[in-house]
Design goal:
The protein has 257 residues and is an alpha/beta fold. The protein has nine helices and seven strands.
């Protein structure tokens, strides 16, 4: 149990390190005006909202399934429509959330409604490189998953839930487990093969333009990483250089209405 908890804490620490580095892209663009109001869609455990809140910004975070433990209050929403008045927010941002949203057009419509006319949207999204590297590790780990499934069918209900590809795999229904194991889609993607197209810069750009957003800028993420915490804090300099000059694991799209 202690080793399990330690491993999950290390994974969470690495994930937060990567998300914090990605958030710096947004912080460099944000104005020094702390009166702006920010909405995070898909806040998860609230870590990124906490970072922005600690810097003095007014932040609201929402999610259909907030994660525990929470680092910042994340409001649970059940209705596709946001419970906010028109033109409420100066900034709206998402972080690796768009692939998980089944009805993107409806979400985009809500973003347009609650964002001020001169507001800015930040979407941090995964790349084809991220998907490729993640799936290389995934298929190498399949024997481990199968062995663990044979030895132990389910985790104890008393264990603290911390998100990872592995815990998600075990907790889902049998049918979803098989799909996750062999097709390994992220969110709403039919399979990892589709992600090689869906996560390309060209495809993201087309998606935003088709939904009537103006693309102001596209920035590369700070690292080359995967969905697995392999090597974690090792090779940091290499990860940064590779992301800067070759392939990164995320894009940050800066949009306006």
């Amino acid at each position: 149990m202690k080793n399990y908890v330690k491993k999950k804490n290390e994974e969470l620490e690495w994930l937060h390190h990567v998300r914090r580095a990605e958030l710096k892209i947004i912080e460099k663009i944000l104005s020094d005006n702390k009166n702006i109001k920010i909405l995070e869609i898909g806040g998860g455990d609230g870590f990124q909202s906490k970072v922005l809140s600690d810097e003095g910004f007014s932040v609201v975070s929402i999610d259909t399934e907030p994660r525990i433990p929470q680092f910042f209050p994340v409001k649970k929403i059940d209705d596709p429509k946001f419970n906010f008045l028109d033109e409420t927010f100066d900034i709206i941002f998402t972080s690796h959330v768009l692939p998980h949203i089944p009805n993107l057009e409806q979400t985009f419509d809500e973003i347009k409604r609650v964002l001020k006319k001169d507001g800015i949207i930040f979407h941090i999204v995964p790349t084809t490189s991220w998907s490729f590297i993640t799936n290389v590790w995934h298929y190498l780990f399949i024997p481990k998953y199968l062995l663990k499934s044979i030895k132990k069918r389910t985790f104890s209900k008393s264990q603290t839930h911390i998100y990872s590809a592995e815990t998600t795999l075990i907790q889902e229904t049998y049918k979803n487990k098989i799909k996750k194991l062999f097709l390994h889609p992220l969110g709403e993607s039919p399979s990892f093969v589709h992600e090689l197209i869906y996560f390309s810069r060209r495809y993201w750009k087309k998606l935003f333009l088709d939904n009537d957003f103006k693309i102001i800028d596209v920035k590369r993420g700070p690292y080359i990483t995967s969905g697995y915490g392999v090597f974690k804090f090792k090779l940091i300099s290499f990860r940064k250089i590779f992301a800067k000059y070759f392939f990164s694991s995320s894009y940050c799209f800066v949009l306006k209405l």
